[in-house]
DNA sequence: TGAAGTTGTCTATTATCATAGACAACTTCG
DNA sequence: CGAAGTTGTCTATGATAATAGACAACTTCA
């Protein structure tokens, strides 16, 4: 065969191979930790050159989906959600890009008052009225993180009800006329899940979590909301741009 | 820009442009008969070379979605369903390939006896028991054709109920263990829709129809079913392989 | 230790993708 | 008719995709 892609569909051959392998991983034909067939074998099944397979595997490896070990084979990585930490990242977009369905679920929404720290983050005075939203975010049916979000009760009246209806922070902000926003400085630490979060994340007690604190700003730099998120470490992998 | 495709995603640039235009046609931004923007203008909106736009338009023209008129412009064709007449064609696949959802709807299933002609087509004796299935097939919510299908009542007992449940001839045959089948000789004529079919196809009286008679065989050549289909001529366009 | 099997890297060739410019052929409209 | 705008076709160039072969580097296992 000297054609570049099947039926000149405008989709590169290596992409078709990569998609095929990814589907195999997604539907469990290749489980996490499994060894993929050798490059030659994959090349034969797809009737493609070994280098084309390598191109496909390289693309998957870049996304952290597989890991090649020289002399041994290529292995399926623990299928962690690749979570790029850019200034403009939306949970729904990240999850959707991985071919999974993003879901949001409200746990609790209640009034709160700003501590000195929260007030500083949000550019308010200590004791200012806040709305606190506790929510779970899932990819398909897998809980990824629990997050506590604080917003100004004056700027976003009735925010809890709006989030309950939209199940999306992005849509919540859009409801108040905020068309775009960015994440400011983000702090990442790790910890051990507590009993409450363990139940919410369907996670065994004692498992590690990634703790992320971030404040989102609008395009003018005005603080909109500050978040305290706890990610199931075994299900997510943050990607920081180099 | 000297890159071949956006973010080296494995999808050709012309494909992205073609998909974008096709989406515009699908969601009504460009209606049937409309003139598309000029090639230069499209090139500017997609920030792409004019030749790349031409490649995209050529792909759409090949599928019959648009028609270029030299010196005048490129126009959206009457959006007929492109129906390739190969030996192995499935309605669901054809409709699905066009980005529309295939649907089937049972009108009536009843017992019948083989005329001399039907018996010859199905390899049975005249007077043999048959099941006759009347069905409508749609793309999204647009009726495409009405078809009358005859099957041997002995080979496919209770076929009507199975079709009512599966709404697919392919699945019906699979239910009886037929994994694959091919269409044999196909006869195509044209006619005027009668009152019954006009109502079923949501077609005005007096409109033309394409009449297709075909018999499907299994891979050993044994006749499985014979069909008499009436297509709304203004909604479909048969493609015969060259 | 050695053989077999695996991934990594190199060179080389061909086809396609994408861009660029120029001009012909044609349609539309004043 | 003539000008403006459109699609059609040609040549040319550089980047990428895909194939092909060879060999190095490494792991696994008998």
UniProtKB/TrEMBL annotation, chains A, B:
<dbReference type="GO" id="GO:0003700">
    <property type="term" value="F:DNA-binding transcription factor activity"/>
</dbReference>
<dbReference type="InterPro" id="IPR011663">
    <property type="entry name" value="UTRA"/>
</dbReference>
<protein>
    <submittedName>
        <fullName>Transcriptional regulator</fullName>
    </submittedName>
</protein>
<feature type="domain" description="HTH gntR-type">
    <location>
        <begin position="11"/>
        <end position="79"/>
    </location>
</feature>
<dbReference type="InterPro" id="IPR036390">
    <property type="entry name" value="WH_DNA-bd_sf"/>
</dbReference>
<dbReference type="InterPro" id="IPR028978">
    <property type="entry name" value="Chorismate_lyase_/UTRA_dom_sf"/>
</dbReference>
<keyword id="KW-0805">Transcription regulation</keyword>
<dbReference type="GO" id="GO:0003677">
    <property type="term" value="F:DNA binding"/>
</dbReference>
<dbReference type="InterPro" id="IPR036388">
    <property type="entry name" value="WH-like_DNA-bd_sf"/>
</dbReference>
<dbReference type="Pfam" id="PF00392">
    <property type="entry name" value="GntR"/>
</dbReference>
<keyword id="KW-0804">Transcription</keyword>
<dbReference type="InterPro" id="IPR050679">
    <property type="entry name" value="Bact_HTH_transcr_reg"/>
</dbReference>
<keyword id="KW-0238">DNA-binding</keyword>
<dbReference type="GO" id="GO:0045892">
    <property type="term" value="P:negative regulation of DNA-templated transcription"/>
</dbReference>
<dbReference type="InterPro" id="IPR012702">
    <property type="entry name" value="CP_lyase_PhnF"/>
</dbReference>
<dbReference type="Pfam" id="PF07702">
    <property type="entry name" value="UTRA"/>
</dbReference>
<dbReference type="InterPro" id="IPR000524">
    <property type="entry name" value="Tscrpt_reg_HTH_GntR"/>
</dbReference>
